[in-house]
Amino acid sequence: MLGGRQLSPAVAALSAGASDMSGWLLMGLPGALYAAGLVEAWIGIGLTVGAFLNWVIVAPRLREQTERYDNALTIPEFLANRFPSRALALRTVSAVIIVVFFSVYTGSGLVAGGKLFETAFGGLIPLGEAGEYTVGVWLTLLIVLTYTVVGGFLAVSLTDFCQGCIMMVALVLMPIVVITGQGGFADTAATLQSVNPNFLSLTDGLTIVGFLSAVTWGLGYFGQPHIIVRFMAVRSVEEVPVARNIGMSWMIVSLVGAVGLGVFGRAYVVANNITVEDPETIFIILANLLFNPLITGFLLAALLAAIMSTISSQLLVASSSLTEDFYRLFLRRNASEREVVTVGRVCVLLVAVVAAIIARDPDSEVLGLVANAWAGFGAAFGPLIILSLTWSRMSGTGAVAGLVVGAATVIIWIALGLNESFLGGPGVYEIIPGFIASFAAIYLVSLATQSSGEFRPLPGRAAAAE
After folding, report:
1. What are the boundaries of each domain within the chain?
2. Is 3-365 assigned to CATH 1.20.1730.10?
3. Most buried residue, 255, 299, 310, 455, by most Cβ within 10 Å?
4. What family does the database annotate (predicted)?
């Protein structure tokens, strides 16, 4: 489940990055920039800050404390060991949240796979648009399941490393070729200004609510199980800073490339009178138009790499939660390691089928599905992970309260449509109320239950740091 905690800094860093940057990096984010302009880059800025703070605050503490607290292998198990008086509730609730939101998150990756297949091979296979999309969803899933079921965490991490390298090369190559074909920055800017004089403005039409909804994407990092589990697998705490530097360098280059792809891609489309029905497919369209078929194949493989790296990580984390926090906890406490591995493989298949059902609608938006799942994890686990690693007075009851309140706030906010429209204005991203409510619930409930003695003191280095 953790590859023996023996990941090198480079593999851990690119595995965390590739697991994070799914199909939305090459489809969702460029599509948003293509449609709305440079103002959408605030999402990338918020993510960069959030990722850096995640490496600084969470990574070294989580690597150390998961090993010290009875060698916890999953996030729910760590929380249970940290707060033994509420172990059952914490493992059960967190496992439910992980499985529910990861089903949606994995579904977003399969949507990207379906769109890739439909756009790249549209008309070449006599299946009709819906048929081509569906084949793409199931084909993507089949490829990912093959190595995830067979190889587990180590296979997923090693393939993530390779996929991360391919993604970065594609995101450097594509914008350079596009802007070169447009005659450079000056001609590109002129073309974009003919569409919208403020297309290259970071503040055009930006409200306070819109700004906060964009930059607070960074809050989600603290609570993403498929990302922070990589911190638990680094060889040692001393190697975390090296991994951080590698990971942040990779992330900044990739995000700048994604921003350039969306902005320069819009200029190319306008200059050449090309019709783009779905902005999220701009990467695929440019790959087909601008490159030799051999290079196009590599670029499409880069998109598939982004999709696969995230899906495999999410399936693995959801499977480990079902196995360790349901099967082993309630059904077969003394199950052998071989039995646990077999059950884990079955759970991977089950979660995968649910995700494929969620992804069956060809009109689904990748960025929208990612936003919902990202907010759910960020609000439910973000404050909980930060405080459990840094605040010795946090109680088990407070931990349960934070999980429930954070997840429930996000779900209710989405159900009421407040992420689309709030008080007659633009919607407020659901992670904002969810994160605040979860943090407040943990703090207030922990203060109210401090005298009950339901906490274990922080170990060694972390306690000294506090």
Report:
1. 3-365
2. yes
3. 310
4. Belongs to the sodium:solute symporter (SSF) (TC 2.A.21) family.
